[in-house]
What we know:
Number of helices: 9
Low-confidence stretches: 119-129
Largest sheet: 2 strands, antiparallel
Oligomer: single chain
Strand content: under 5%
Amino acid sequence: MEGFAALATEPAAWAALATLVVMEVVLGIDNLIFISILSNKLPEEHRARARRIGIGLALGLRLLLLASIAWIIQLTQPVFEAFGHGFSWRDMILIAGGLFLVWKATKEIHHNIDPAPNDDLFDTKSVGMGFAAAIGQIILLDLVFSIDSIITAVGMTDNIAIMVVAVVTAVSVMLLAATPLSNFIGQNPTVVMLALAFLMLIGTTLIAEGFGAHVPKGYIYAAMAFSAAVEALNIFARRRQARGSPTREPA
Length: 251
């Protein structure tokens, strides 16, 4: 209760909350891109449910981890040392999650550019297995992103109330943006490839951080924003071309 009282009376608490909300929303974008791509592999009638379950699990995991702050802090303590670096449980989780993201993005890129049909976990002919596989993979990446998100929150403030409000706000933004983002990705095939490239970049970053190489998030998100801006211009140009630009009269 003291933490919530501080939010109502202390301007510094509001500043910390605003900063943490922005950070959590930015970190949640990675999680949301993965959920959107994965849900779009399912039949249309199952997509919204998969997104809701995925985002609900993201919120549940984050709140559960917030309730285990003491355990979360211990995850950053080295468990063993190799190659001159002390590896913690957080490092190993980030490396495993990064490897999974790189594998998944590579597999999906191959699936998108290979014209020959092949067996896939998300083959619409086996809807049940596809849905279960999608939820299983969403849970796995939700766990990775949730741990990274909560450790970031713990590093920015020790006020549990601020963490809870920031996490709930960020996940609410994810919930609102999930369907528009998924629809946009589904309607623009080139955006799918760009999003998969983002996942490969994020996966590589997670692996690097797991091995102790700090990669400033600002560079990563600046590169992603620049690429997205270029793709937006390409989409705009294609739509204008499809409508047919008016021909000019010769001088």
